Input
Amino acid sequence: MAIVLVPNGGLVIDNQDNETQLFPNFGLFTNSPPPKPALTLPTQSNITQTTATIGITTDLVVNGALHWYISLSATAPDDDDLLDGSGSFLFGNTSSPIVGINTFDIIGLIQGTTYYTYFLQTSDNGNSNKVSSIAWPTLSGTPAPSTNPIYASAIASAIRLIDIYGQTATLLTINDAAPIIPSQKWKPGGQTNIGEEVRMAFFNETRVDQYGETRQPGQMAGHGFEYGLLADNDIEPTLKHVIIKEDSSEWKIRYINRIHPSGEVIMYKIGISQ
Output
């Protein structure tokens, strides 16, 4: 009698009378590899000038993570870059993906720009899977006028908007806590005008200013601004500087000046030097 083990099949017994008996799924051993997650193509929805929702569907989660990576390049990043975000425009992940649809709300995109989305799902069985999207653009045109004290695209402060000269830009809002940066929105017809440089006095201690008003540390003086014309009324971003003086100190803030037809002038901080 001969006993033959069949990989992935089971056990075969030959009784030497030209008869065999198959016992399927005997389970003595198998060559099956660990399961690998199957990912759908990425999806993009709810696209505006500066925001979008990206998504992916997976059929398997084995104690792993799901990484997303938004790029300006049609060339897929390698796994290491996708994991740490090197070369991305924006990137992120969830350590708790679910079987089914996983979506991510993205902010900080640039209007009229083409992006590519890449996903990488890892698992603790050693298998991972990566997929790429087709090109997708954000909407072009002029953003809708803001009805909020903060510019409409400022869903959150301190988000990455644009990378210039190797520095990360953050949006200044009226709640910005940076100590030497004005917490205000510029409007035409007030102290500041569209496209102008502003010199603003700041105080490093509580004091009464020349107008008899009490100012707190880091607060901007509300009077006596000096102006210097910098740019025409262009809604495209332009690189400028704002000079801020506090006593004998002079701070230079590099910023992007974006002018909205509704009259709002939005300042994006790029870097600060003294």
Observations:
- Residues 163-273 form one domain.
- The longest strand covers residues 249-259.
- Residues 143-205, 217-274 have pLDDT under 50 and may be disordered.
- The helical segments are 79-84.
